[in-house]
């Protein structure tokens, strides 16, 4: 750990007892205890993809304080996880990490949150600042939270809210993977070169006509640059329903001399430069207990599937970021999605969500097709079992195709690569808030 990170950590821990005795710090705070069991089963179905048979458990404890004198607060969290069963036929594990033996993974014991937060002003005119470790969620950078323990990052955040305008910026110095015991690792490229930091800035503003405009810019220093622009509008309709409409445009470009123009084996092929763009339009009709959506996304230039550093799990705020990414150059995806709360049918606590996405073209490949069917069935218990939930995720994912004669394309296996993957996942969660 670098000296300034160590000093900052000591500062957070040092002021915690003092804040704990202050007005509002405890009275307006809340804690959460969560126990999880996840079972992941995956089959490449004669294609290229992982074979998984893993059953893991984890415990997360989180505390979010109130604000002392309405100015300063502290969030803390810790997580532990280990394996209950790893099948003999598994060749990959995703909730935990392993060395040479997938059947003998490492357990995890790690701080997930240690974040000092400050705020000045009041609603409608407020400055918010923070430093430390937490799971962040922006358009262009988001720490992955889909495994037994979440990924997190260490850095700074600042935001200013004034009426319908929000300005914000963030800096990320270190990263804590979702499958390791780690305070935070240095950021690095796939060939081991150090990335000094990731920085982003953005704004969101409500325009006349109930239109929201959002934009964000990010740079992984000397490695990768990204941008995002979005417009959205909600239109009230009869039957207490809403039609949500959105347009988005984004780009991803090489950002300097750290970018691997030589390629990364199996993930990215060699390229003199990288310049990927996407455009997206989506419609979602929402009723009180159901919704139906349609989205179209097209990628141009190069593949839209680079990560900000080697350990990054990847962020793409797009309908085309599904179980895997529909992000090859020239790929055009259509996606139909829907969801239904089954409580009005007498099945209290039961909900279904799903989508079907497909594309049939990608530059430089012939006989190309990509298909994804996703189904998520969730049940939330009530009464004496309030806080307990069970979910079943089923996914059929297939990518077919081969390089066209005369093209310089190869088969790659990054997030938008030629992967075929069927999976079933069970999530058992018990959450208690106090």
Automatic annotation (TrEMBL):
What Gene3D superfamilies does this protein's entry cite? Porin
Q: Under what name is this protein listed?
A: Outer membrane porin, OprD family
Gene Ontology molecular functions? porin activity
- A single GO cellular-component term on record: membrane
Q: Does the keyword Transport apply?
A: yes
Question: Does the keyword section mention Signal?
Answer: yes
Lineage: superkingdom: Bacteria
Cite the entry's keywords alphabetically: Signal, Transport
What organism does the record attribute this protein to?
A: Halomonas organivorans
Q: Where is the signal peptide?
A: 1-22
Any Pfam family the entry gives: OprD
* Protein family per UniProt: Belongs to the outer membrane porin (Opr) (TC 1.B.25) family.
């Amino acid at each position: 750990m670098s000296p300034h990170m160590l000093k900052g950590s000591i500062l957070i821990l040092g002021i915690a007892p003092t804040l704990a005795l202050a007005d509002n710090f405890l009275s307006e705070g809340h804690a959460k205890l969560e126990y999880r069991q996840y079972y992941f089963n995956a089959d490449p179905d004669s294609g290229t993809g992982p074979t998984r048979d893993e059953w893991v458990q984890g415990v997360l404890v989180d505390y979010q304080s109130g604000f002392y004198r309405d100015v300063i607060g502290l969030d803390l969290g810790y997580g532990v996880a280990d394996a209950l069963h790893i099948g003999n036929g598994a060749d990959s594990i995703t909730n935990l990490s392993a060395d040479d033996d997938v059947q003998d993974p490492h357990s995890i014991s790690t701080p997930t949150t240690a974040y000092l937060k400050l705020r000045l002003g009041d609603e409608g005119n407020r400055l918010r600042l923070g430093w430390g470790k937490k799971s962040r969620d922006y358009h262009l950078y988001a720490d992955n939270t889909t495994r037994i323990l979440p990924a997190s990052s260490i850095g700074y955040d600042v935001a200013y809210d004034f009426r319908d305008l929000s300005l914000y910026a963030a800096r990320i110095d270190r990263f804590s993977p979702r499958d390791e015991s780690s305070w935070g690792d240095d950021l690095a490229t796939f060939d081991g070169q150090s990335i000094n930091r990731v920085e982003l800035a953005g704004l969101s503003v409500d325009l006349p006509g109930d239109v929201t405009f959002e934009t964000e810019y990010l740079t992984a220093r000397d490695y990768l640059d990204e941008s995002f622009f979005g417009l959205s509008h909600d239109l009230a309709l009869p039957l207490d329903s809403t039609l949500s409409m959105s347009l988005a445009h984004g780009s991803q470009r090489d950002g300097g001399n750290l970018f691997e123009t030589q390629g990364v084996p199996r993930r990215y092929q060699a390229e003199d430069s990288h310049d990927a763009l996407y455009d997206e339009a989506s419609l979602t009709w929402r009723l009180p207990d159901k919704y139906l959506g349609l989205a179209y996304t097209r990628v141009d230039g190069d593949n839209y599937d680079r990560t900000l550093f080697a350990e990054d799990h990847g962020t793409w705020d797009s309908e085309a970021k599904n179980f895997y990414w529909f992000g090859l150059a020239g790929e055009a995806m259509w996606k139909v999605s829907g969801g239904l709360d089954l409580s009005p049918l007498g099945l209290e606590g039961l909900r279904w969500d799903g989508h079907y996405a497909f594309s049939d073209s990608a530059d430089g490949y012939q006989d190309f097709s990509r298909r994804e069917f996703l189904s998520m069935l969730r049940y939330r218990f009530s009464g004496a079992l309030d806080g307990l939930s069970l979910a079943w995720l089923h996914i059929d994912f297939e990518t077919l195709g081969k390089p066209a004669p005369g093209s310089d394309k190869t088969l790659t296996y990054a997030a938008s690569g030629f992967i075929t993957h069927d999976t079933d996942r069970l999530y058992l969660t018990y959450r208690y808030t106090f």
